[in-house]
């Protein structure tokens, strides 16, 4: 039996996946989620590892860390139906992941495991509370990546100017990567590099990665960015009569005591 706390995390992950699916961001098996668990693996019965998975990079920095991760190819609308098949709990050991629980019937960790683990390693250094990484396919952000400059300063400024909450909850802005093939270590390493300065990283013409101190926090950041992208797409082709000016953004930052990304405001 899993301890109650771990069952709660599994439920919370499945609920987050279901929300993403409800938003229309999880077509087919789109999206993946991981969480660093506050345990060392000894909680699991029959601790002799049943299976292991090979990584395409050396994750020794995370040795001994235990993660709850979604399985590759799984549909987010269905995770709660059979979590033991669709989710796994793994422990990092160099270039391998030891399976401690789950992935029954041959399941395996998400194909984006490199981006998740590498991002966890970076975010743990930036903010040890950032235990959750979410990847999903938000429609408006992906559409915006097709028509907007991919310069992350410009992209971020456009988002901030759409609605107050965007600066308030994403004062670091949004990092942007050009399109890259997904599911390998190249995009994983590039994502983690961006995670040094951003907790949200957009993959042009694909989706988004976000780190947070829980499922709500990580998903909430994506919701904010996605709302701003939707507002942009709804108005970009119309004559803009007003948006939030740089002076107003600065006023908001001062009022909310935000440390806004250096050099991103024109004031
Ligand atoms: P997985 O099913 O392997 O997690 O892949 C989904 C996805 O969104 C790839 O970027
Ligand atoms: Zn994806």
Helix/strand layout:
Layout: H1 4-22, E1 32-37, E2 52-54, E3 66-70, H2 83-86, E4 87-93, E5 96-102, H3 113-126, E6 132-136, H4 139-147, H5 152-160, H6 164-169, E7 175-177, H7 185-194, E8 200-203, E9 207-212, H8 215-235, H9 246-255
Parallel strand pairs: 7-8
Antiparallel strand pairs: 1-3, 1-6, 2-5, 3-4, 4-5, 6-9, 8-9
Helix pairs in contact: 3-7, 4-8
The structure holds 1,3-dihydroxyacetonephosphate (13P) and zinc ion.
Residues 30, 135, 137, 182, 206-207 line the site of zinc ion.
Please, could you describe this protein's structure?
This protein has 267 residues and is α+β, with helices and mostly antiparallel strands. The protein folds into two domains: 110 residues, L-fuculose-1-phosphate Aldolase (3-Layer(aba) Sandwich), CATH 3.40.225.10; 149 residues, Class II aldolase/adducin N-terminal domain (L-fuculose-1-phosphate Aldolase). The chain has nine helices and nine strands. It has a nine-stranded mixed beta sheet with strand order 2-5-4-3-1-6-9-8-7, sandwiched between helices. Helix 3 runs parallel beside helix 7 and helix 4 packs across helix 8. The longest helix has 21 residues. The model has no long low-confidence stretch (mean pLDDT 96). The site of 1,3-dihydroxyacetonephosphate has 13 residues, from loops.
Strand content: 15-25%
| Strand order in the largest sheet | 2-5-4-3-1-6-9-8-7
Which sequence of SSEs, written as H and E, runs from N to C? Answer: HEEEHEEHEHHHEHEEHH
Q: What radius of gyration results from the CA coordinates?
A: 19 Å
How many helices? The count is 9
Distance between the termini: 57 Å
Which class of the largest domain in CATH terms? Alpha Beta
The secondary-structure class comes to: alpha+beta
Question: What is the annotated CATH architecture of the largest domain?
Answer: 3-Layer(aba) Sandwich
pLDDT averaged residue by residue: 96
Strand tally is: 9
Query: Major β-sheet, in short?
Result: 9 strands, mixed
When the domains are counted, the total is 2
Overall geometric form? elongated
Distinct ligands, ions and cofactors found in the model: 1,3-dihydroxyacetonephosphate, zinc ion
Give the low-pLDDT segments. Answer: none
- Write the CATH fold name of the largest domain: L-fuculose-1-phosphate Aldolase
Instruction: Write the CATH homologous superfamily of the largest domain.
Output: Class II aldolase/adducin N-terminal domain
State the helical fraction. 25-40%
């Amino acid at each position: 039996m899993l301890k109650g706390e771990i069952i709660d995390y599994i439920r919370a992950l499945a609920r987050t996946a279901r929300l993403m699916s409800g938003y229309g961001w999880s077509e087919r098996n789109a999206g993946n989620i991981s969480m660093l668990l506050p345990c060392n693996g000894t909680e699991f019965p029959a601790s002799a590892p049943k299976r292991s998975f090979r990584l395409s990079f050396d994750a020794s920095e995370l040795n001994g860390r235990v993660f709850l991760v979604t399985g590759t190819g799984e549909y987010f609308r269905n995770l709660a139906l059979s979590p033991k098949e669709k989710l796994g709990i793994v422990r990092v050991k160099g270039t391998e992941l030891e399976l401690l629980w789950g992935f029954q019937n041959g399941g395996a960790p998400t194909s984006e495991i490199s981006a998740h683990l590498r991002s966890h390693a970076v975010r743990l250094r930036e903010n040890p509370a950032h235990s959750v990484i979410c990847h999903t396919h938000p429609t408006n952000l992906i559409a915006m990546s097709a028509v907007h400059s991919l310069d992350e300063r410009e992209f971020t400024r456009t988002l901030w100017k759409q609605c107050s909450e965007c600066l308030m909850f994403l004062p670091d802005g949004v990092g942007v990567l050009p399109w890259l093939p997904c599911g390998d270590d190249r995009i994983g390493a590039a994502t983690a590099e961006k995670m040094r300065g951003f907790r949200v990283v957009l993959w042009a013409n694909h989706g988004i990665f976000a780190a947070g101190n829980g499922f709500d926090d990580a998903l909430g950041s994506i919701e904010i960015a996605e709302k701003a992208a939707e507002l942009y797409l709804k108005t970009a082709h119309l004559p803009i009569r007003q948006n939030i000016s740089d002076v107003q953004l600065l006023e908001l930052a001062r009022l909310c005591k935000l440390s806004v990304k250096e050099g991103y405001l024109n004031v």
